[in-house]
Amino acid sequence: MIDALTQRFPALATLGPRHYVVGGAIRDLLLGRDPADADVACDDPLAAAQTVGPRVIRLGDQEHLSAYRVVLPGHVYDFAELLDHDIAADLARRDFTVNAMAVDLASGELLDPHGGQRDIEARLVRMVDASNFDDDPLRVLKGVRMAVKYGFDLEEETLAAMRARAATITSVAVERVTYELSVIFSSGVLRRAVALLRETGLAAPLGLHARDLHADDVTVAGAYALLVDEPRAYARKWRWSAELLRDVQALQGLIEQHDRVDLYDAGEGVARQLPAVLRALGRDATLDFPDFSIRALLSGDAIATLAGLAPGKEVGQLKRALLEAQLHGEITNAEEAERFVRTKVERWA
């Protein structure tokens, strides 16, 4: 294990005694995955970070929660203070057994006091101690994220402890919750995610309508379009980006009405997400997509000249009508477009 860690994160070899790689990197290596970063617990995290690299980034805004990050080409190192300056105490306060392992960088020993290797082999998410959920209620949702991401089951007592604390998720900073949900909903296993949110009791306090679904491959916006009844209110509460709100609202509108014009107006990025949403609802996902590169064949000025109109609302209406005719394949060239405008004007006269 120590060789795999130092091969992936060479700067670890520069650290001395009482430095421990903890958590995710060890879990990922045991799962045969390539870890994205190395978390190091030690007595003096700032000094350790400065040993590894010249530019240190402070994480967090509270002294007792501060951690330090060093980003090197291809490698990220995070350093945090060893809880109570004792690795056993540190691991005992962690969330799940698969995250409560450490490698002593001095001896190379793998420390696994809570059976994390056993639970990786059994593909189980098991809590270290139920009281650790109370230290940070986000851990309840994180348990769902881990089960979804790694294809693990929630151990029975862990599930019961999570369910008992599901309501506390509303006490967590909304940005942290929204991030966890984005990871959960982008994992490509929507039905499993919804089942776990329902089973843990998290769906209700998170305001998610846990409906029965028939497919998994939706986007984050697609998941919310399926699970949230009032996106605007939800977006305010959970502080979505304007882009996410726009996409969710557009997808919900397209579920019932999705001809070429509707799809074009939603934009290609949103429209291409719709088939997966329809499949999840058990509906026909065959769509007649428009050419999203289409633009009106005549400019507003050209239409105004043809119609003998001053620029304004009527010109805009003609241009929109022309565009819709193009989207439906009724108009294919400038000559037809001019004839279309003249005909429209004659009917208005």
Pick out its properties.
49% helix; Beta Polymerase, domain 2; alpha+beta; cca-adding enzyme, domain 2; 4 domains; 349 residues; seven-stranded mixed sheet; two-stranded parallel sheet
Helix content: 40-55%
| CATH fold title of the largest domain | Beta Polymerase, domain 2
Category from helices, strands and their pairing: alpha+beta
Uncertain residue segments? none
CATH homologous superfamily grouping of the largest domain = Beta Polymerase, domain 2
Walk me through this protein's architecture.
The structure is a single chain. The protein is of the alpha+beta class. The protein folds into four domains: 2-115, Beta Polymerase, domain 2 (2-Layer Sandwich); 123-210, Orthogonal Bundle (cca-adding enzyme, domain 2); 231-293, no CATH class; 300-348, no CATH class. It is built from 19 helices and nine strands. The chain has helices at 2-8, 24-30, 45-52, 87-92, 116-122, 131-135, 138-150, 156-164, 174-185, 190-199, 220-227, 231-238, 242-256, 260-266, 268-271, 274-280, 300-307, 313-327, 334-348; strands at 19-22, 38-42, 57-59, 67-72, 75-81, 102-104, 110-111, 124-125, 153-154. The strands form two sheets. A seven-stranded mixed β-sheet has the order 3-4-5-2-1-6-7. A two-stranded parallel ribbon has the order 8-9. Strand 3 (57-59) and strand 4 form a beta hairpin. The longest helix has 15 residues, at 242-256. 37% of the residues are buried.
Give a brief rundown of this model.
The protein is of the alpha+beta class and 349 residues long. It has four domains: 2-115, Beta Polymerase, domain 2; 123-210, cca-adding enzyme, domain 2 (Orthogonal Bundle); 231-293, no CATH class; 300-348, no CATH class.
